[in-house]
Amino acid sequence: MTWTCGIDVGTASTKAVLVKDGKPYLFHQISSGHNYKETAVRVLKEIAAKGNLAKNDISQTYATGCGATQVTTDKATVGDLACCAQGVHHLLPGVRTVIEVGDRGTKVMRVNEKGKAIKFVMSERCATGCGRFLTIIARVLQINIQDVGALSLTARNPISFATGCAVFGESEAISRVAEGTPKEDILAGVHMALATKIATMVERVGLEGPCAMVGGGALDRGLLKQVEKKIGDRVHVPDLPQFTVAVGAALHTQKNLDSLKAAAGFISHDTTFQRGVIQSPCRMHLISN
Hints:
The chain is an alpha/beta fold. It folds into two domains: 3-83 and 242-286, ATPase, nucleotide binding domain (Nucleotidyltransferase, domain 5, 2-Layer Sandwich); 93-237, ATPase, nucleotide binding domain (Nucleotidyltransferase, domain 5). 38% of the residues lie in helices and 20% in strands. The chain has eight helices and eleven strands. The strands form two sheets. Strands 5-4-1-2-3-11 form a six-stranded mixed sheet. α3 runs antiparallel to α6. 48% of the residues are buried.
């Protein structure tokens, strides 16, 4: 039995996925905080403990995400773009267009039949192009971010945000609250604004179906509905979409380990372990604090 791990160190949260014999098995997520190194060590320790594993039981770990380079251990790093493409390819093998909505940015990419990103665009650095804007507005409205999607679906008169700037967008939301605008109408307006930006990015890479959304933003049903409306196509969402990049990192780790074994003569070389072609369904076990 071989265990490998992938860690996605994001600005808001850090996700870890344990792969058992080539298949994602355990999932764990914690807040990233301000020290990415300590967070990575903690998430690895916690997921190992909940899997009843000792540290030495995990053969290899790869880190990805904005804080990956600060994970100063013997662990390797891999690009989050490649991990996202590979993770989606494993979870939804037929998908060709991927929308990843994260806390710090949004990516749209085209993925080929081998799970490799062949074309991509990223949002501008302003928070209005990513999940951070939803967090900002949720704070203004004093609601839990997990409730944003469901509440926005009850909107009757979504507002139109006149700015593409997060700072001015926050001010506009505050003004709308003062005017008595229903929270759901404000949220629906935010979803429309973000979906419009995403649709523009999809147009730039060229939509090829099927299309999927991953990242924490994919948990927001209101945003998902608006994106589908803007691009005019169904958007698929895998189970636990926030773990997709970590899944890709974990699979990359497994493939690297298998390649090392093949080079050492422990296993025969097999194209199953080449980049991006694993398509086995996985049994998911979500663990939480």
